[in-house]
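STRUCTURE:
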C-alpha cells in the first residue's frame, strides 16, 4: 500500500524561542528625570523618553529667582556693636599726659595713627593749638587726610569723623564739656573708648546717658 505523504509537522524547536505573551511582560519602571517639573509617566508596557519641562517654564523660574522683588529669606540687619570702654585714673593736670601714653601704647601695639582721635575738655592739645594757628581750614584738612592722630577740643568733637579708637582727656573744663566730649567720643569710637580722668567723675557722666 503506497504511503501517503504526511503533512510536514512543525516542531516546537523550529519556531525559535517562544516569546512571552504581551500580557505576561512587565514594563520597566521609568527612572525619574531631574528637572524643575517631571513629565507624565509613560503608559505601562510602552516605556518612552521623558521630555523635560518646556524651556519657557525653566526660564520663568530663573527669571523669578533673579528679580529683586522675588520672595526669599531676608538678610538679618546688622546690629551696631558698642565700643569697649577703658578708664585710666588721672588728675585733671595729668589727664593729657595719660592720654599721650595711651596713644603711644596704641601705636606700639599696631594701631595706625589715622585710627586714633583724641578729645580734650580743658586746654587744647599743643598739636591742635599749633595747627589752628594756620587757620581753621588747614586744621580740618589734617582731619580729612586721616593719616595721623587728630586732636580736637570737646566743643568741636562732634564735627570729627568716627575712628577705631577715641581717647578722651578730662583735663579740666566745665562739667558740660565732659558730657559733650564723652557723648561725642562714645558715638565715634568704633572699637575702643579710652577715658583719662577722675574715675568717679567719669562714672557719673557715663551713667548719665552715654
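SEQUENCE:
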Amino acid at each position: 500500500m503506497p504511503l501517503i505523504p504526511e503533512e510536514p509537522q512543525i516542531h516546537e524547536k523550529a519556531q525559535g524561542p517562544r516569546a512571552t505573551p504581551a500580557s505576561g511582560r512587565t514594563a520597566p519602571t521609568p527612572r525619574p528625570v531631574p528637572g524643575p517639573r517631571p513629565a507624565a509617566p509613560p503608559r505601562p508596557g510602552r516605556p518612552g523618553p521623558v521630555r523635560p519641562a518646556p524651556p519657557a517654564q525653566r526660564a520663568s523660574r530663573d527669571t523669578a529667582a533673579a528679580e529683586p522683588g522675588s520672595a526669599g529669606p531676608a538678610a538679618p540687619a546688622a546690629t551696631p556693636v558698642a565700643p569697649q570702654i577703658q578708664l585710666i585714673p588721672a588728675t585733671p593736670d595729668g589727664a593729657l599726659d595719660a592720654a599721650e601714653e595711651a596713644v603711644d601704647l596704641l601705636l606700639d601695639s599696631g594701631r595706625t595713627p589715622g585710627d586714633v582721635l583724641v578729645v580734650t575738655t580743658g586746654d587744647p592739645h599743643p598739636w591742635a593749638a599749633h595747627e589752628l594757628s594756620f587757620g581753621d581750614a588747614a586744621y580740618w584738612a589734617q582731619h580729612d587726610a586721616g593719616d595721623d592722630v587728630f586732636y580736637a577740643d570737646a566743643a568741636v568733637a562732634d564735627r570729627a569723623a568716627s575712628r577705631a579708637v577715641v581717647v578722651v582727656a578730662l583735663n579740666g573744663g566745665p562739667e558740660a564739656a565732659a558730657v559733650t566730649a564723652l557723648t561725642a567720643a562714645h558715638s565715634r569710637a568704633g572699637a575702643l573708648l579710652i577715658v583719662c580722668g577722675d574715675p568717679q567723675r567719669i562714672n557719673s557722666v557715663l551713667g548719665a546717658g552715654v
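REMARK: The CA atoms of residues 107 and 113 lie 7 Å apart.
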